[in-house]
Amino acid sequence: MSKIILTGDRPTGQLHIGHYVGSLRRRVELQNSGDWDEIYIMIADAQALTDNADNPDKVRQNILEVALDYLAVGLDPEKSTLFIQSQIPELTELTFYYMNLVTVARLQRNPTVKSELKMRNFKGGSIPVGFFAYPISQAADITAFQATAVPVGEDQEPMLEQCREIVHSFNSIYGEALTMPNIMLPDNAACLRLPGTDGTAKMSKSLGNCIYLAESPEGIRKKVMSMFTDPDHLRVEDPGKTEGNPVFIYLEAFSRPEYFAEFCPDYQDLAEMKAHYERGGLGDVKVKKFLNSCLQAELEPIRKRREEYQKDIGYVYEVLRKGSMAAEQKAAETLGKVKKAMRIDYFSDEELIRAQTEKYQAASN
What kind and span of H or E run contains 30? Predict the structure, then answer.
């Protein structure tokens, strides 16, 4: 069996460092490992429209922002297929067929759906059907490319579980036509769900607590220096908590041994810095300055690559056009298998046509 990856992002704004440590950095590593036969990376504009239907220009403009971020972090069109979801009509058809395999009650129990509905504060019956059913659409995205692995953050685990249920139901009813995908979570626990700069559980564009990949050096510095930290660590000499402290969670995700040697030689590693903070004597300002240096070092090459790609927007759109054409070809193959399994491939089933012909010829004799 081929080893295939499918993953993607909604184009509702520029991507941030939560996307980077949660998925983007891993995608580049997987792409460059040579261990995968096919990698599909989707800009999920159709999904973004489920709760931005009144603002299509927002989605339209952010297609380019996400594509630039993809290229800037190191995703290579020669190794990964970058495409736009809405340009693959087969995904819509698969979604429609899968709707018959999922109940409303099951969608209501999906923890990710419940969390997203709460965040967007939909009132009563105002929830768009497309948004409510987006786990089914996501299952269509994954299965259309016969993905064997889906690299996502921890918050998407319930979505993949629902996809696996759909695959199991389809294959049980119609026969083995779909590939069962597996979730691929980040190895680093700090990357599972990077908190916002304000200390809330999740970094989110809608909450305004993000550091963007394209953030200016001064923007990064200001956001880091104003970050939430241990509220009880009032004086330098006070013992501080590192567990659940956003500054140290970010350091878990971004610090490297070479960064300590270059930017903070007082400590050999993060464990030593944590120990000093916990016993007291290490102030938040020093820790934040070190975090700022780590982020600047990590994001500077990404920002510079982005600036280069911005000089040739035509190239970026051509990458997406070619990727979408290749992705549609793959999705069409899967849709063909699905329709054959469901016995709705009327015009390509020569055996059916022949049998019906013989039946009516016999009846007329």
Answer: helix 25-33
Give tens-digit pLDDT for 105-150: 998 888 878 777 776 766 666 788 888 888 999 999 999 999 999 9
* Cα–Cα distance for residue pair 23/9, rounded to 1 Å: 10
**Cα–Cα distance for residue pair 351/224, rounded to 1 Å:** 67
Q: Going from the N-terminus, what domains does the chain have, and what CATH number goes with each?
A: 4-193+313-352 (3.40.50.620), 215-309 (1.10.240.10)
1 neighbors 198 (Cβ within 8 angstroms): no
On whether the CB atoms of residues 165 and 21 are closer than 8 A, the answer is: no
197: left (phi over 0), alpha (psi -120 to 50) or beta: alpha
Does position 53 have pLDDT exceeding 60, yes or no? yes
Strand, coil or helix: what is 182? strand
C-alpha to C-alpha distance for 277 and 239, rounded to whole angstroms = 6
* Token representation of residue 208: 């305004």
Beta bridge partners of 182: 149
Tell me, what's the pLDDT at 274? 96
Closest among 58, 73, 68 to 12, alpha carbons compared:
58
